[in-house]
Amino acid sequence: LTGITQVEIPATRSPSSLTEFKAYLTTLTDARERAIAEASFILGGRAQLEHEHVVVLVHGINTDAEWQEALADQIRTECGLVTYVIGYGNYKPRHFLWPYWDMRRGPIDRVIAQLRVICAEKPGARISVIAHSFGTYIMSKILLDCADLSFHRIQLCGAVVDTQFKWESVRSKFTQLVNDVGTRDLWPILAKQSTWGYGDGGSFGFKNSVCRDRHFDYAHSDFMTPEHFSNFWKPYIVDGEIIASLWTKQRRAPGLKVKLLRMLPINYLLWWVLVPAITLLSVTCAYWALKRLYELIMLWRGLY
Amino acid sequence: MCSTRYDALTSEFPEEVAAIQRLEETARRFADRELPVQRLYALIQPSSLRTLALIMHRASEAGLAQRFFRIQSERRGGIGRDFTTIQEIPDEIYDSRLGCTVEVKAEQIGMFFRFPDGVQV
Q1: Residue B114's CB: how many other CB atoms inside 10 A?
Q2: What is the pTM of this model?
Q3: B47 vs chain A: nearest CA distance in angstroms?
């Protein structure tokens, strides 16, 4: 490193300093001095070590989410970022549908605990999240409930969060938010219509100023491919560049099947008709069985 | 073949052996891909920015890396062609993403590196 004078670089990069800097470069005769000056200029006159960027993957229900490991490996290999795969077991649909809130609290608390461990292990790191299906619901709850957790970039897909969710109320908790919508994805609609607390943001988008919707001709789990990651998620997660999807403009209005599904009050049918009917049937059966048992006992007593 | 060229870097910057090993590994992993200088700095962790600039200057001379500058649109994404030095960058440029000619601000300029033959390392 000998023979090179210490280069003095403008401390700030004001709009006018580019012209000044170009003039300054002409005074440097040594190519190595110019290289140092240019690098220093780009980094604002001092070395700004990038904060570590961590990507966390959160899966949905009724799955062992094999895509997580494959995607994590792709992120590590192609982007050089640290990845964490977060899970909460194979969460069954019956738990997902049960409208009693505490059934959903378990997975939420498990994800919160793991995120806090990551924050402790990587202090100062920027945490980006890719969440699918029920993982998006978990993320919406974390954004609402956890004052200590904030995120860099959030990528949602197959979202079962309500389209009425007030993303603007949690705007300070993230840098960017993108929601990938599958126009052939009926599961968010079914989730919304079958129980309470979910929404169909993954089928129609949120149409919110703080969240960018991108539409794809996809079903619920079609997002988890290396191609989709390379084309859409990688530029966003790494550089914040949101690549537009052509399908956003090309898509047509939902068909009759979707419209009917959106109108069908499955939750009321399920919980106010079917469940009471099953309960009534069970009680009737139990009553009949007890009555039959009583008759048998009386018969037995009569015999002896 | 390429390891010899990295050995030449190591002999020139003996105190940066670990950083040059990380550079070699980075070149292998990010073959033919672009890395902004900030990420390169984070990945190879040299002792200083000055050292990074010198190592990368030598790496560019040896053909191990290509350095270029790119103007970033305020709407995200690069605009115009890439430049080999800051002196080449014009004061004004047509921003196709904004649809108008804009004055180039220093904050919009990014320095990138590409490792063209990283796979052969």
Answers
A1: 17
A2: 0.58
A3: 10
Secondary element (H or E) of residue B92: strand B92-95
Contacts of A237 (CB under 8 A, 6+ apart): A55, A75, A79, A81, A128, A130, A153, A155
For an interface test with A, give the residue of B44, B68, B86, B89 to mutate (most A CBs within 10 A): B86
* Concatenated DSSP letters of B55-88: HHHHHHHTTS-EEEEEEEPTTSSEEEEEESSGGG
3-state secondary structure of B114: strand
* pLDDT digits 0-9 by tens, A4-41: 444 444 444 444 578 888 888 888 888 888 888 888 88
Question: Is this complex's ipTM strictly greater than 0.90?
Answer: no
Residues in B closer than 8 angstroms to A77, CB to CB, are 29
Contacts 24+ apart (CB under 8 A), A21-26: A21/B86, A21/B106, A22/B86, A22/B87, A22/B89, A25/B85, A25/B86, A25/B87, A26/B87
Chain B interface includes A256 (CB < 8 A): no
